[in-house]
Amino acid sequence: MSRRPNVDMATKRIKKEIADLAKEDLGNISLTPDEANILHWKAILPGPAGSPYEGGMFDIDIKVPHDYPFSPPSLLFITKVYHCNVSSNGNICLDLLKTAWSPALSLYKVILSLSSLLTDPNPADPLVPPIAKEYKLNRKKHDETAREWVRKFAQPKQAPKVAPKPPIQSRASTASIPRRAISRPIPSSESPAPPAQIAGTRRGPPIELGDSEDEGDIEVVQGSSRVNGHAGSGGGQGGGTGGQGRGVKRAKTSGGGNAGDAIVIDE
């Protein structure tokens, strides 16, 4: 009958510590309770700077007893570590977890003490006497072995790489559609513009007669040209329908005429 109140007391105390952790600056330390059991915690402790364990990340399992905080929690190294106060199965020799425990302590303070233990081992109270002896007699070799274990067992876990997704293509892939080059003529500034197509009567450019004194206006009417002579001093020279014979004179144009325009000169 007395155990149930202790469980409630431990749960109440842990909830208070969770609220206090929200106000703390944990740095690189991770301390989280199990979602299914508030009395079971996981911690990730970074190796202290300047120690042989620097650069390592150590997983620690924490179990809170039902009579907490009157009894200390139990801690276990999940990550292998070369340390005289940590056994091969992860058990830890730390005064705070034994005789030096106080209800005023918290899980966070225990983790901080564990970090100090990595910086300053206690070879006087070892769990692994050979490592403690090496620590005292051959510190250089001890530190080299501790760093080697960090490289082998305590490297930070990297997030798994996710393969990039292939690009999404429509059902009618553009690769299946044949491509055809379409060549279009580029208009040149030097090329003459095509002749305008105008229906009806139009007046062409002026035409000069190269070997005649008679000059006339040429009227181009739908593909033919007619020169009407000026009125002369006599009555029979000016008319285009007079009885004199017809002659064709060579005409010199001052502008370009259309091919297909026949020039007929009536004298």
TrEMBL record:
Region (Disordered) residue spans: 155-267
Residues annotated as domain UBC core: 9-155
Could you tell me where the Gly residues compositional bias lies? 231-246
Instruction: List, in alphabetical order, the Gene Ontology terms for molecular function in this entry.
Output: ATP binding; transferase activity
Q: Which SMART domains match?
A: UBCc (SM00212)
The active site of this protein is located at C93
Ranges of Low complexity composition bias in the record: 175-199
Q: Does the keyword Zinc apply?
A: no
Q: Give the Gene3D superfamilies listed for this entry.
A: Ubiquitin Conjugating Enzyme (3.10.110.10)
Offer one Pfam family short name for this entry: UQ_con
Q: Which key words tag this protein in UniProt?
A: ATP-binding, Nucleotide-binding, Transferase, Ubl conjugation pathway
As for family, the record states: Belongs to the ubiquitin-conjugating enzyme family.
Q: Show the PANTHER family listed in the entry.
A: UBIQUITIN-CONJUGATING ENZYME E2
List the protein's name.
UBC core domain-containing protein
Q: Which organism is it from?
A: Cryptococcus amylolentus CBS 6039
